Amino acid sequence: MAEYVIYETVAVLQINNPPLNVLSHHVRRQLMSGLQQALQDTAVRSIVIMGKGQIFTAGADVKEFGTEKALSDPSLPTLVEAVAASNKPVVTAFHGTTLGGGVALALASHYRLAASSVKIGLPEVEIGIVPTCGVSQRLPRLVGLQTAVQMIVSAQTMSAQQALTTGLLDKVVSGDLLSEAVGFAKSVEVQALADRRVGSRAVPGADTAEDVLDAARKRLVRRSRGAIAPLTCLQAIQASLLPFETGMKREAELGQYLWTSWQTGALRYAFLAERTVKRWYLPGNKTVNYRTAEPLVINSVGVLGAGTMGVGITICLLQAGLKVVLIEANKTQLDKAVTLIQRSLGGRSHSKQLSHQAMQLRATTDYRQLGEVDLVIEAVFEDLALKRKVFQQLDSVTKPQAILATNTSGLDIDKIASATQRPDKVIGTHFFSPANVMRLLENIYGRHTSPETIATAMQLGATIGKVGVLVGNCPGFVGNRMKGLNFTEAMFLLEEGAEPQDVDKVLEEFGFAMGPFRVSDLAGGDVHWRRRIQAGLTTEQGPPPNTPLLYRQGNRYCPLADMLCMQGRFGQKTGAGWYRYESGSRAALPDAVVHRLILKHRQDNGLQRRNISSQEIVERCLYPLINEGFRILEEGLAAGPQDIDVIFLLGFGWPRHTGGPMYYADKVVGLGILLRCLEKYRALHPRSAHWVPSSLLQTMATQGTSLTAWAAGSRL
Ligand SMILES: C[C@H](O)[C@H](C)C(=O)SCCNC(=O)CCNC(=O)[C@H](O)C(C)(C)COP(=O)([O-])OP(=O)([O-])OC[C@H]1O[C@@H](n2cnc3c(N)ncnc32)[C@H](O)[C@@H]1OP(=O)([O-])[O-]
């Protein structure tokens, strides 16, 4: 609700809708009635709009979108325009965070005040919408095109000081916001309002407008990769150069265009999915869930292994204020890691706080120093025998109640847990590289992992600012199990006629930051080569004895990646992989050596080259992965499609504007079309088991069920 209080001649309207003061219908109704009351009351000479609680407002109520409530009177645009039309000065005073609709109210007001700690932002582009309610029209008039583009298109928040410098704020206050706002409102009661109305101003610097917009457009065309919201937002900003009323009409049209696009639905879904997965439960036993399981309190964490992952994990633990004991047997490696960690923590602006964080690190070669930690994250080399040995040691040196987590990207959690006397306290915590940057934490429970251990790992993820997704134990878990198929098919496409750059280009146009071959070169082809060797699919010298070149373990197999690795072409780190790299450069250049290798491979094996369409590349690379997602749901390894989608959005660079693989299949491709496509490729490629449609997909496609509706029904 919104509260109405009078302070002498000032009417204060306070939004009170915890926790985030979103502008839901009941809040808008009360704000509107408060505004009307203040306008009618002759004793009131000015109006202040504020928020109670932690923040001013997170903006419009996203959960109302698409429902009748969003449009019910007063809608947000109606409320904002009523503020703009007020003939008594309106002062918006904000604190905490002010987003979207909150900024719209502020821009429609005559004055803007904020607490010094405020963060102001326009996250609309991230949920695929244009900042409406006049934001795209008033903001450029107030702060200029350059800043407006920066705020609207980048969705980055601005500090109070920046907002003051750009002219968005009239004043930053450090004392009590309510009394400062009331005092300020009184001081402007006699001021004329005409030139305080942002809508009646002209955009400053109109003579350089085209240059600013052109530069932004070029940048966005390069970066958007199929996402339509950023460029549409830019068009709305451009309309601010028109007369205000015309610009407002254009803003509404563009808003409607985005609103009805499938991408907006996908982005809104992604926003909510990231929050839904926090409410975890075991797919096979819903009684074990975030409500019933209590996490242990974690104050100190041991990290075992100071390689790239260990360093990244240590940085995010320290940044969250935890004490860390970093163990590494190799002293030189340990010293190198400490330097990296200290540099990373000290390299930011709040150096006092961060040097305190760096002081929470104890780095040692001595395992016994782990005696007092509450939880250990093991990050040694990806080798089952080694990890089992390490867990045996951890079991003997840590206190009995300590949780032992393994940062494996696909090894069997139960096999690791069985090396200890406490399998209930063993869990997988799969970080993504770089661990201090990537927001995903794939948490894997084993057969004996206790609810308390799961709750603790999920809580730890939240503490260190990650989105934890809980999944079951299977080779590769959810992410790598699905992702592997994408690369498999990408290689088959090379055998059939494509070049690495063709496949990468199509998937980059689809929205991935990098295609599978560029990703492979970045990650290092040797990592997966070692895995294939361990799995008995190949050897360092080529196919295992008596094995056909193009088939392994009953399935079609492409040996091209193995051939590159046998030549020492591991990717960027060796200067050559699927592409070649000039010294010091990360630019992937098509390589005639690879071209000839593929050509010869086709000739030697009687593989016919044909033209492959972009559509086929998308279908071949993405549909098997999606089919595997359905199998994962069928096998109860993930609670719902949201969990899978979040893993791909945050861990694998899946384009956010498509919602993630499962949402894309359900809402964009359509399950019926997906099924028919899988069947078509299954007939063409009978030796690839991944084309066999999952039975869950078959049932849903035949019954016409929507995956998202099915998931919404089953979610806790
Ligand atoms: C005119 C104008 O152009 C248009 C028309 C608009 O205004 S469009 C709307 C623009 N506003 C946004 O896009 C808001 C984006 N929100 C955020 O960036 C963050 O939420 C946050 C504010 C920085 C807080 O982060 P947090 O980490 O402390 O908590 P949380 O876990 O994220 O959120 C806690 C709970 O609040 C829910 N929530 C957050 N923002 C919400 C919103 N705007 N509407 C409804 N629910 C919201 C969220 O789903 C979760 O619910 P549940 O899952 O627990 O049921």
The level-1 CATH class of the largest domain = Alpha Beta
Report the portion of residues in β strands.
Answer: 5-15%
Mean of the pLDDT scores? 95
List low-pLDDT spans.
none
So how many helices? 30
Number of separate strands:
21
Listed once per kind, the bound small molecules are: (2S,3S)-3-hydroxy-2-methylbutanoyl-COA
CATH superfamily of the largest domain: 2-enoyl-CoA Hydratase, Chain A, domain 1
Oligomeric state as shown: single chain
Q: How would the global form be characterised?
A: globular
Give the second-level CATH assignment, the architecture of the largest domain. Alpha-Beta Complex
Helix content: 40-55%
- What is the number of domains? 4
Provide keyphrases for this structure.
Rossmann fold, binds (2S,3S)-3-hydroxy-2-methylbutanoyl-COA, 2-enoyl-CoA Hydratase, Chain A, domain 1, 716 residues, alpha/beta, six-stranded mixed beta sheet, N-(1-d-carboxylethyl)-l-norvaline Dehydrogenase, domain 2, eight-stranded mixed beta sheet, 30 helices
